[in-house]
Amino acid sequence: MSQLRRHLEHFMEFWHGFLLITSVHLLAAASPGPDFVLVSQQTLAKGRRTGLICSLGITFGLGIHVIYSVLGLATIIAHSQPLLTAIKWLGGGYLIYLGWQGIRTKPKKPSNLVHSADADASVSQPVPSHQNVATKKSFNRAENTETSFAILRRGFFCNVFNPKAPVYFVAIFTLVLSPDIPLWQLAIYGVWMMVLQMAWFSAVVMLLSIPAIHQRFQRFEHWIDRVLGSAMIVLGLNLILRSR
């Protein structure tokens, strides 16, 4: 009877932690920050595919934080001023670099705007097959100017170089949850956090890539890139200059 009660307590503790992780991490993922700015910029500028690949890169970056947190290294990083300072400079510098790329964005040629609009319209309206193929080829030439790996890497480094992450995971795994949680349970929570991260940013990408919404941003795409690029530079400078 006592063994059954113990199993029931473990079961309840697991689901209690699961609900805590879900609610806290969804709030953290939805809060505005470098990841959100980057995914929005990539989706509005380059479309759904780029936004989803960038989101996957961010999710893989989160996986790095999960791994070292499960191994107990998050506490060491969070309490090491030299390590946090190094991560701050790397993260801030990388955000400034991404922001500068956005600021340098030039307006699209009218022909590219037409191809983008045609490609978006083809999602909701049937067109003759030969026109559809031609439109897709033109659109793909315009969109696939960089490799999937480059997009993935951009999202990955944006998340990995976030100095808030070690502190966040220390709070999650030692304050929100019990510090004596078994390793396998922490691993499940970590994987679930990655799933939540990808689901959230996928939802953002799908919303911003709806043809009716995406077309409205097409003609102002370079200005959006510049505004979001400026926001990334501000975030990067704030990261570097602020006190711990």
How does this model look, in words?
The chain is mainly alpha-helical and 244 residues long. 84% of the residues lie in helices and 0% in strands. Helix 3 (48-70) crosses helix 8, helix 3 packs antiparallel against helix 10 and helix 6 runs antiparallel to helix 11. The longest helix has 29 residues, at 2-30.
Report a brief summary of the structure.
Helices cover 84% and strands 0% of the residues. It has 244 residues and is mainly α. The chain is globular.
Which features does this protein show?
single chain; 244 residues; mainly alpha; 12 helices; globular
Outline the fold blueprint.
Elements: H1 2-30, H2 34-46, H3 48-70, H4 74-78, H5 81-103, H6 110-124, H7 129-143, H8 148-160, H9 164-176, H10 183-208, H11 211-218, H12 221-241
Helix pairs in contact: 1-10, 2-3, 2-10, 2-12, 3-8, 3-9, 3-10, 5-12, 6-7, 6-11
